[in-house]
Amino acid sequence: MSMDPCYRILLEKFVHLLKDANYPIDKIKGSRTPVFIGQFTNDHLITFHRSKVENETNLLGPNLGLYN
Question: For residue range 32-59, what is the model confidence (pLDDT) as tens digits?
């Protein structure tokens, strides 16, 4: 089974977070512990600038989210 590298890094960071907080992973193992994560990236903007977008209004507002 393979895993997306970004998900793997995220899981590794979560484990580091628990260790840094001195919180034993066994306390949450098997529990229904939610994890909330916020993320932002502008990789799509770099792609569009390279592709010479004809209509730049497509890069504004809600349309921007469609290109992620």
Answer: 988 887 766 666 667 667 766 565 555 5
Contacts with 16 (C-beta within 8 Å, 6 or more apart), sequence order: none
Rounded (5°) CA angle 15-40-59: 160
Q: What is the DSSP string of 4-35?
A: -HHHHHHHHHHHHHHHHTT--GGGTTTS----
pTM: 0.47
For residues 42 and 1, give the distance between their C-alpha atoms in angstroms, rounded to a whole number.
Answer: 29
SS3 content of the chain, % helix, strand, coil (to 5): 55, 0, 45
